[in-house]
Amino acid sequence: MKGEYDVVIIGGGPIGSIASLLLEAKGLSVALIERNTVPYPFPRAIALNGFSMGLVKDLIGPELWSEFEFTPGIHVGYVLNKDKMDEPFGLMQPPVIEGKILDNDSFGFLNWFNQPQLEGLLRRSIEDRDGITTLYGHEALVLWEDDLNFVRVQELSTGESFDISGKYLLGADGGGSFVRKQMGADLKSLGKSIHFLIVDIKAPRSALQPGMDFDAGGHQIIDPQGKRPTTFIICEGKSHGTYKETFRFEFALKKGDDYTTIQSPESIKHLVGPYLNPDDVEIVRSTIYKFNSLISQDWRVNNMFTIGDATHQTSPFQGQGLNMGIRNTSNLVEKINLVHSGLSNDILLDSYQVECYPDSEAIIKQSLFLGGMLFNIKPHINLLRAIIHTFNGKKGKPIDLFPEFVPDTVTVDNGFKPGKANQKGYPMYNYINEEGYPRSLRTYHPTEYRIFCKEDGSTVAEAVKRVPEIVSPMVIELSDGSDGGSTAGSRLVSAQRKEDLDKHNKLFKGASYVLMAPGYTMLGTYKRGQEEKLVSDYLSRFKLSQ
Prior knowledge:
Glutaredoxin; 3 domains; nine-stranded mixed β-sheet; eight-stranded mixed β-sheet; about 25% helix; globular
């Protein structure tokens, strides 16, 4: 036996590395197993949202953070063809509330970054943690369970094998997950797979062709005539960030494309030619990538769990693949810590899937919808987009395509089965945080339960004060925004959109309070005078031992 640990993690990419740092920060001992001795050298994920950025900043510390190169993204536009870059028929950018950009207090809603650099910084941070044992250049061969999870590990350079064990085992080993297969978990398809040619380019900004010099952001180009839908992202802002001279292209592959020929330098320079001067480009990477829309039906089997791509895989049209993995991983870590520390019952770990599945499924489906806007080049869809462009993108305001990361509310009863739920409409409430920045409930906080109050929330706020700090919920008073979204002590007052009032009333159905879990799962509604029952029901979710 090589060693016993609290947690064994298989897979040392960004998700596995982040999981190990989060667990170690809670005081748990971790063994991290990864085949590659060095980080994967080419970019894959390129976008982090505000929550992910804040978490990474806290994990790696100020010294390493000062080295992290990123650029806040400004927008993503949907355009008909390359000569209409300044006339998007749809635009994905956060709204402005009271003169401030929503969800933009610390970071942009999307931030372009270089994954190899991020993985390198995470590894350097791990090196400084006494509670993490790294087994780089190793592969998991066999898993079996007794009182602990046992893993037979092989060092790839020598062929030597040995066993390690952990109370918990996390599979962060990607789409083909060895751990998920050992768990016997089935993948559910949410849509057909799509093949892309992914190209990363280094070039000076001066290489941009006329009409392509927009601020940091991206464009989804339908290109119905050429029938080559394309994503073009400038990973550099005119006055933002430090991630310079980098461009990402995603070219749709057409029937009959030869995968070898299309990846030749000549072919790539031809494809990027409308956007960049081909003579000025350096091809960093080109690869054929298959984007799946899949979600596992079992995220936990005993004390084995999957995280990241081992659990869910999505198309790239929202830039949420890695972000979704980070959110859900942080949710699981908090629950493992509560159980491991003896504060909560083991049953709490089931809520990982219960809370995170609906949110993840909704994001995958939404990404498929946005991808369909790009890839569907059938004549009737082209006509519809042309009409939208004429009356909105060209002569008016583009359609707001900013993704509502808050899916429809999921009502949960005692017979809930993960992945199966009744959907109900739920409005997007905005609120002002203590620092005075507008936030939305689409900004996912993985362990932050919320109590929404239709009226004055002081009574329930007093009741909540008796809740242990480690699981204390946020109390939000809902309004029509007429109060300016001010704070009320420790309670937040929403600046709800007036157009959501009807949905607001339908959600409450005469109740005074709504209890919401992370992942926007509605746990129950309560009337005035039921504050004690609300708090009791809330605490029962955590199976607290005290």
